[in-house]
Design a protein that fits this description.
- This protein is α/β, with parallel strands linked by helices and 495 residues long.
- The chain contains 17 helices and 22 strands.
- The protein has a domain of 237 residues: ATPase, nucleotide binding domain (Nucleotidyltransferase, domain 5).
- The strands form seven sheets. A seven-stranded mixed beta sheet has the order 16-17-15-14-20-21-22.
- A hairpin with a 2-residue loop joins strand 16 and strand 17.
- The protein starts with a strand and ends in a 6-residue tail after the last helix.
- It binds adenosine-5'-diphosphate (ADP) and SN-glycerol-3-phosphate.
- GO terms for molecular function: ATP binding; glycerol kinase activity.
Length: 495
């Protein structure tokens, strides 16, 4: 008899992946495709939703076929905040997807801030007024794309983050829904009430008819059309990729923290039933909602992590493969005073400086390509340290370990440097694709394969622990160099 499997779709910023998992939670097959990034203007980032759909269908079919098992349920996880608006009749997007990294609404955010809206935004949504989140991007499409506002007001259009768009397409246009974790990133959602917020909709002039229904993370989201996998398959799980990683890393207890290193880096700290408000630039967000009960997280969001390594490869041509950065960094005695501040799309938490742009500082004739590669890896660890310090300052974090995952976590040199900078054990699981695993677990729970978080925690396996091995003085001196580089890169000039 065919084995039962769960299929996870992981729609990331640079690639779309489908993975199959056994009922033991172990990954079996992975099919991955990179897709085109569009940069129409400085600071703008777009995706073609049809590329995303095409790769989703192709990878899910290939993964299921390569596996050969019987797909019991599908889970979807996705790059968050990215906005798609489509026609309810034809399913056609009215514009390219505006990606979470896109800064085009920086001015609008500054204006809304100057008008005194930020305290209410923070109180209701847990977020701040930064172009990162979906709300102002949705407003841009309504205001700038000809005819769209009128069509929206006539109820002809639907808005969604990537999860919603894929759900709509996978169900043949039958279901327009999202999950609480994705909704909590839109700037439109009251994270305390668990409902769309009328004041936010008014502030951004967004017709409510555009919005999807918001559901638990593990529930019946509908069935796929029969043509995709030969028969309809239930979609049982949906979560933003960072929240799915919280589930995949089994961070179910208050105080558990994970950090995912993909395109960006996102640290999420489970704060249980309490929605902790940060005074230090962190976000308050929904980690997951199960059986109607919300668990919150404090989040630190860094916009560029693995993307800096990708730039070394694709922009500079300095490396052939991302993994080359490991040996280049290992062979140097130190960083030679070279720092990279990867503010390619501004700086996220805790600085929130959308107008900053990247820099490399401290270059001398002794600097080599390896110093630049190392500076890229180091910058991601320094940024994580800034987040952890902010969480400590918020009184929200003790000195427990942090679990890491995502593509960059495969790099041993980086993980060790991270442990040194955080002065905390860095724990890497056997499966670093925890995002897809989280989506599979949520889907599997919905169809009774796993009963709840305890079953999921039992499948989590450690690969390696990286223990801090640097003196306090060495750490402080590196962090000072980093702080100096950040100050030089800031768009806010010191008086
Ligand atoms: N060994 C490595 N060392 C450093 N960076 C790496 C390594 N392997 C992958 N990366 C980086 O990690 C990112 C890929 O991670 P992934 O989790 O697939 O990202 P995403 O889901 O955002 O597409 C890429 O940006 C790549 O540059
Ligand atoms: O593409 P990733 O994995 O870096 O994730 C993107 C985040 O969801 C953006 O908030």
């Amino acid at each position: 008899m065919n084995e039962t499997i769960i299929l996870a779709i992981d729609q990331g910023t640079t690639s779309t992946r489908s993975m199959t998992f056994g009922t033991d939670g172990v990954p079996r097959q992975t099919v991955r495709r990179e897709f085109a990034q569009h940069y129409p203007q400085s600071g703008w980032v777009e995706h073609d939703p049809e590329d995303i759909w095409r790769d989703t269908v192709a990878t899910l079919k290939e993964a299921a076929e390569a596996d050969g098992g019987t797909v019991a349920a599908i889970g979807i996880t996705n790059q968050r905040e990215t906005v798609v608006v489509w026609d309810r009749k034809t399913g056609k997007p009215v514009h390219n997807a505006i990606v979470w990294q896109d800064r085009r609404t920086a001015k609008l955010c500054a204006q809304l801030k100057a008008d005194g809206n930020e305290p209410l935004v923070r109180e209701r949504t847990g977020l701040i007024l930064d172009p990162y989140f979906s709300g102002t991007k949705l407003k841009w499409i309504l205001d700038e794309v000809e005819g769209v506002r009128a069509r929206a007001e006539r109820g002809e259009l639907a808005f969604g983050t990537i999860d919603s768009f894929l759900l709509w397409r996978l169900t043949g246009g039958k279901v327009h829904a999202t999950d609480a974790s994705n909704a909590s990133r839109t700037l439109l959602f009251d994270i305390h009430k668990g409902a769309w917020d009328q004041d936010m909709l008014r502030m951004l002039d967004i017709p409510e008819s555009l919005l999807p229904e918001v559901k638990d993370n593990s529930t019946n989201f509908g069935e796929t059309t029969a043509d995709l996998l030969g028969k309809p398959v239930p979609i049982g799980g949906m979560a933003g990729d960072q929240q799915a990683a919280v589930v995949g890393q089994a961070c179910f207890q208050r105080g558990d923290a994970k950090s995912t290193y993909g395109t960006g880096c996102f640290v999420l700290l489970n704060t249980g039933e309490e929605a902790v408000t940060s005074k230090n630039g962190m976000l308050t967000t929904i980690a997951y909602q199960l059986d109607g009960k919300i668990t919150y997280a404090l989040e630190g969001s860094i916009f560029v992590a693995g993307a800096a390594v990708k730039w070394l490869r694709d922009g500079l041509g300095l490396i052939n493969r991302a993994a080359d950065t490991h040996d280049m960094s290992t062979k140097l005695d130190g960083n030679g005073g070279v720092y990279m501040v990867p503010a390619f799309v501004g700086l996220g938490a805790p600085h929130w400086d959308p107008d900053a742009r990247a820099s490399i500082t401290g270059l001398t004739f002794a600097a080599t390509g390896s110093h630049i590669a190392r500076a890229a890896l180091e910058s991601v660890a320094y940024q994580t340290a800034d987040l952890m310090n902010a969480m400590v300052a918020d009184g929200a974090r003790d000195a427990r370990q942090i679990r890491v995952d995502g593509g960059m976590a495969a790099n041993d040199w980086f993980c060790q440097f991270l442990a040194d900078m955080l002065d905390t054990d860095v724990v890497r699981p056997a499966n670093i694709e925890t995002t897809a695993a989280g989506a599979a677990f949520l889907a599997g729970m919905a169809v009774g394969i796993w009963n709840g978080p305890d079953d999921i925690a039992a499948t989590w396996k450690e690969d390696r622990i990286f223990t801090p091995a640097m003196t306090r003085d060495a750490r402080s001196s590196l962090m000072e160099g980093w702080q100096d580089a950040v100050d030089r890169t800031s768009s806010r000039k010191k008086p």
